[in-house]
Amino acid sequence: MKRLSFLLFILLITGLFTKAEAQFEGQIEFQLQNLEEPAQSAINLNMIFFRERIYVESNASMAVLPGLNTSAVLVRNDHRDFVMHTGEYEALKVTKDDLDGLINLIERFQGSRASNGSGDSFDWDTNVTETGQKREIHGYTVSEFQMRGDGEDEYISVWLTDQIKVNWGLLNEAWQTTGRNHVGEDIPIELVMNRNSFPLMIESYRNGEVIFRAESVNVETGVRDRRKTRVSSDTKLLGITDLMMNMLRQ
Length: 250
Fold this sequence. Notes:
Layout: H1 2-14, E1 26-34, E2 43-50, E3 53-65, E4 68-76, E5 81-87, E6 90-95, H2 96-110, H3 124-127, E7 128-137, E8 140-148, E9 154-161, H4 169-183, E10 198-206, E11 209-221, E12 236-238, H5 240-249
Parallel strand pairs: 6-12
Antiparallel strand pairs: 1-2, 1-11, 2-3, 3-4, 4-5, 5-6, 7-8, 8-9, 9-10, 10-11
Helix pairs in contact: 2-4
């Protein structure tokens, strides 16, 4: 179940882009809740898709890297970089190459080594099933896919619509070069992050009970307020050197 939870996290917090036809522009709000811990507050996640950019913000602080916490990330495919907000008027700007280099540096310091992808590939025929079930979520037709978990009574239910297509760009590239190496080929991120469909509901089951739910609570087409897809002129942008110094201080 640990891998299943990580898949949900990667799907909704991190992501990836390629040029897609009929690119969705708008806002999708999610609510994430661990139903095994009902006392825990739900996490709200807001995603804005506009042209070559994606803005993701949450009411919970996200530990992106050692020494770096953020509640909002702007993915700028047109600039090939990520802008991670670290304060009201401060943000870290890192390019995709900077990120890859930093991850490699962390691995050398920790003495770890990423997976080389030489293991067995994911068995789609055995582990993923299209159930044939369909329903409507926010006016979009969704189809159910189920993915088996580590345990006999564990699986994830993913409800996908082909009526929403987004350009995952840099997030996709970051997964292919970094995320996949750390999680392994048995996590089929392509099921939930691809150019032809979008998940509007994800539920994790154990023994017939839902233990985790990521649910879209609002879908709006069009971006009324585009300020979040831009970097304000009064925002101080830090670079990769600033991040490395902060990590060393940690």
